[in-house]
């Protein structure tokens, strides 16, 4: 792990933390001045379960038939489904948790997944929402396949209007100088600052 990394803990449950690394990082849609590492939340039993509890509490009054998980968030999604199935409105509901394919930024559902989205109420779960493009594409995809997107949940996110309720554990303002830029507008690139690493849902690879 990069020596510049430091931890930020949730104010509600200190069992949930993200690692933050300052620098210059390239993601699929943007360049950012911090890498936010959520490996523990995605992969650790206790952290995933704690994150799922916080997120599910915000949707306890929302009917949910299916959870679509992006960014390797399926473990968290499974725990959210479990918690929601105990809420009054979803009591004993057999909530599906699926991970669709993403092709050219478009959500693709094979025939075997269609019954879990068509005429269903769908919650979208992702690790981070900074530009909002992934969630917007997922909402568009859910509607295309005949479902209703009832909300989006994320671990780390900016305040964006996405057309559905967005719930996050960490707001982007927990990193006071966090910035996200379109690649062609990145001031770090224009200043000649080299990219430290390429970042995606699996982590980061130094350049």
Structural notes for this entry:
The protein is 22% helix and 33% strand. It contains five helices and 13 strands. Strands 1, 2, 3, 11, 12 and 13 form a six-stranded mixed β-sheet that branches. It has a five-stranded parallel β-sheet with strand order 5-4-8-9-10, with helices on both faces. The chain has a two-stranded antiparallel ribbon with strand order 6-7. The two termini are 14 Å apart.
Main sheet properties = 6 strands, mixed
Query: What is the CA-CA span between the terminal residues?
Result: 14 Å
The SS-based structural class is alpha/beta
Q: Note the total helix count.
A: 5
Mean pLDDT: 95
Nearest-angstrom radius of gyration?
17 Å
Strand content: 25-35%
Q: Quick one: how many beta strands? A: 13
Query: What is the ordering of alpha helices and beta strands?
Result: EEEHHEHEEEEHEEEHEE
Shape estimate: globular
Task: List low-pLDDT spans.
Answer: none
Helix share, percent: 10-25%
């Amino acid at each position: 792990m990069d020596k510049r990394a430091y931890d930020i803990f949730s104010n509600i449950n200190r069992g949930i933390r993200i690692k933050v690394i300052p620098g210059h990082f390239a993601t699929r849609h943007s360049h950012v001045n911090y890498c936010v590492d959520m490996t523990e939340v995605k992969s650790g039993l206790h952290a995933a379960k704690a994150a799922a509890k916080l997120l599910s509490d915000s949707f306890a009054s929302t009917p949910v038939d299916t959870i679509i998980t992006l960014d390797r968030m399926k473990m968290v999604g499974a725990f959210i489904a479990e918690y929601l199935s105990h809420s009054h409105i979803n009591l004993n509901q057999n909530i599906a948790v699926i991970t669709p394919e993403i092709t050219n930024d478009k959500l693709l559902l094979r025939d075997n997944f269609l019954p879990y989205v068509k005429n269903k109420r769908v919650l979208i779960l992702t690790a981070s929402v900074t530009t909002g493009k992934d969630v917007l594409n997922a909402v568009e995809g859910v509607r295309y396949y005949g479902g209703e997107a009832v909300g989006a949940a994320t671990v780390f996110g900016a305040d964006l209007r996405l057309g559905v309720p967005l719930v996050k554990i960490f707001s982007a303002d927990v990193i006071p100088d966090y910035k996200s830029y379109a690649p062609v507008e990145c001031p770090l690139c224009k200043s000649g600052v080299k990219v430290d690493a390429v970042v995606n849902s699996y982590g980061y690879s130094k350049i």
